[in-house]
Design goal:
- The radius of gyration is 36 Å and the shape is elongated.
- The protein has 521 residues and is an alpha+beta fold.
- Strands 1, 4, 5, 10, 13, 16, 17 and 19 form an eight-stranded mixed sheet that branches. A five-stranded antiparallel sheet has the order 6-7-3-11-12. Strands 2-18 form a two-stranded antiparallel sheet.
- It is built from 14 helices and 19 strands.
- Helix 2 packs antiparallel against helix 13.
- 33% of the residues lie in helices and 21% in strands.
């Protein structure tokens, strides 16, 4: 046994001497060169070990950078025309919820203060209306719970398209408002949306309580976020897309409300409309960013689209590495299309159902989820505040995903908006023109909304691989050459002298070894 170990050691020492004398890494011949002073040998040994440690540290750092941050976001090389993206969806919510003939809130307040009682149907309407009127809690305490028809009751008594919109223009062409505006249920009640994907293509209606959905039938969509418009999509494809910048190629709507319907007991000291801009594939909630449009004003919104795309090469990476989801990677129970807003909306609905076992009448609900009534009426709001407070507990720049895990979509669009307001008084215009018609009647309040695109061109952002496998190997090879003065041939030499050469000599059972290279003496 001792003789075998001695022989193996002898073979290894011989192989090392041959390698150091004949390797393409010239510096390796100096650490054990007997012709050099010991201090020089020690200096070379220390230097080579230091370089090797430094190389390993740099390689490990490079590897973890490749694993943990595989994505870089850069601008694309070319400008894209604006018609490659759809015109934004525009959601309009009136602050006046009902006609005075349906519910007179001033009369209700008087009756409440007199201590009068309401019949079953009146109680139902008032309870339902209190779900979308944030200021009713100040003066109205309803004890009668809502039944299963409360969502339908809200839709029946809400203002119709004819009550709210006078004229609608798209690309400077007048359209019937009911052809381009569709009803949408939000926490502000029944609103109206322009250019949103139809509910059939956006929602999984087989998993949703249809009482919480306002059905809207639109043209089939020729666009999705990841692939854009289809090859056969024309100028008039849906969602609508702009062909030029400015308001003449955008949306313009004259809005109205009867003065007798205006009251301050529902939305408080505000009157007019709420306007929100969002992508066509998002189920929008008005609790997000919106713009106020008071009466007798014109609200001009100039939209600047910001597109972020992704390289298909990133699909091989796990979503936790690239920090985004492709549409087919994250299944949503309520939605057919994944994006952050849809994911958060569904997550909040699931959390509310788990803790409250019910939800609000204006929110999408599961098949077996009932409306929150009685003591549970405020439960959804409590869950929302708890979720918001969980974000506020963070320190520094710590990343928080939370129970929703709603990472961004890998391809998405945002719309930056510039706001301009001007006075709008059609009554004075009619008087100046000696117009005696009832086109702009004095019994209504009016407002104007105009939405246009800022620029004809855009420069998208793109998520790309920071390094592919070829780039990684190239950087490792460059660092290997920089630190060690070596190459791939040097690695082959190391493998040869560490494995092949010793194994061959041990198996031959001979102390007489052949030289490593024919011309070595």
């Amino acid at each position: 046994m001792s003789k075998t170990l001695t022989k193996t050691k002898h073979v290894l020492v011989r192989c090392w001497k041959e390698f150091s004398e004949n390797s393409s890494i010239n510096a390796l011949r100096y650490p054990f060169n007997g012709q050099l002073p010991k201090i020089e040998q020690f200096w070379w040994r220390k230097s080579i070990v230091s370089f090797l440690v430094a190389y390993c540290f740099v390689i490990v750092t490079l590897y973890f950078k490749w694993v943990m941050n595989p994505v870089v976001v850069t601008y694309t090389r070319t400008m894209h025309p604006l018609w490659e993206l759809p015109f934004p969806a525009v959601t309009i919510c009136p602050m006046t919820k009902v006609r005075v003939e349906e519910v007179n809130l001033t009369d209700v307040l008087v009756r409440v203060r007199r201590g009068e009682t309401f019949d079953e149907y009146e109680s139902m309407k008032l309870y339902t209306l209190s779900q979308v009127c944030p200021f009713m809690w100040m003066w109205y305490k309803q004890k009668t719970p809502a039944n299963k028809t409360s969502s339908q009751v809200l839709q029946n008594m809400s203002l119709s398209i004819n009550d709210l919109f006078l004229n609608c223009y798209w690309k400077n062409i007048k359209w019937p408002c009911y052809e381009i505006l569709a009803p949408t249920m939000t926490e502000n009640g029944v609103c109206y949306t322009f250019n949103q994907i139809s509910s059939d293509q956006l929602l999984r209606k087989e998993n949703i309580n249809l009482e919480s959905v306002v059905t809207n039938s639109w043209l089939p969509s020729d666009w999705n976020m990841e692939t854009g418009y289809g090859d056969n999509a024309g100028v008039d494809s849906y969602p609508f897309r702009p062909l030029a910048k400015g308001y003449h190629s955008g949306l313009a709507i004259v809005l109205k409300t009867r003065q007798m319907d205006t009251e301050y007991l529902c939305e408080g000291p505000n009157k007019g409309f709420k306007v929100s801009i969002h992508p066509p594939d998002e189920y929008w909630t008005m609790s997000n960013r919106f713009f106020r449009l008071p009466f007798q004003q014109a609200l001009l919104l100039t939209v600047d689209p910001k597109l972020t795309t992704i390289s298909q090469d990133l699909k091989k990476h796990h979503h936790t590495r690239r920090q985004c989801y492709f549409n087919d990677e994250r299944y949503l129970k309520f939605f057919k299309i994944y994006n952050t807003n849809n994911c958060l909306f569904e997550c909040f609905a699931n959390l509310t159902d788990s803790f409250c076992h019910c939800d609000q009448i204006t929110r999408l609900r599961g098949l077996n989820t009932t409306v929150c009534v009685g003591e549970l009426k405020d439960c959804p709001e409590i869950i929302l505040h708890k979720q918001e407070r969980s974000h506020q507990s963070l320190n520094g720049n710590e990343e928080w995903i939370g129970p929703c895990e709603c990472l961004p979509a890998c391809a998405y669009v945002t719309y930056d908006v510039e706001v301009s307001r001007t006075p709008f008084n059609p009554h004075k215009l009619a008087r100046a023109l000696f117009d005696t018609s009832d086109f702009y009647t004095h019994s209504h309040d009016y407002a104007l909304l105009a939405v246009g695109i800022k620029s004809k061109w855009m420069l998208p952002m793109k998520r790309c691989e920071l390094m592919d496998y070829g780039d990684l190997m190239a950087q490792i090879g460059c660092l290997f050459g920089l630190m060690m003065g070596a190459s791939v041939v040097s690695l082959v030499e190391i493998l040869y002298f560490c494995l092949v050469r010793p194994l061959v000599q041990i198996l031959k059972k001979s102390d007489t070894a052949r030289p490593a290279i024919p011309w070595v003496k």
